[in-house]
Design a protein that fits this description.
Largest sheet: none
Order of helices and strands: HH
Shape: rod-shaped
Number of helices: 2
Distance between the termini: 137 Å
Length: 104
């Protein structure tokens, strides 16, 4: 069949060959583009993963700083409350002593 086409209509035969070659070129071109896109997506995914790791590290540091600040503030508050309670107990004791002395 191809031989008859070649002898009867050589231009059609050449067009058939050109069509096959063009289709092959197009397939190769698209495969190359897919590989390039896959490589780009892979790089972007790696970059995103690195950014996410950096974000997690920063978040962890921020949480640690907040925990340290809260611990420090609670310690200061406990110390202040203990001091104020001690002073209040001392005042109560002095007032009780004064009241006993005034009665006695």
């Amino acid at each position: 069949m191809l031989e008859k086409m070649f002898t009867d209509n050589p231009i059609a035969f050449l067009m058939l060959i050109a069509s096959i070659v063009g289709t092959g070129y197009l397939v190769v071109y698209r495969l190359d583009r897919l590989e390039a896109n896959n490589a780009l997506v892979s790089v972007q995914i790696n970059d995103f993963g690195n950014e996410l790791d950096e974000f997690e590290d920063n978040m962890r540091e921020d949480v640690d700083d907040l925990e340290d600040d809260m611990t420090r503030q609670l310690t200061e508050l406990t110390l202040t409350m203990t001091t104020e309670l001690g002073e209040t107990n001392t005042r109560v004791a002095v007032l009780e002593q004064v009241r006993k002395n005034n009665k006695g």
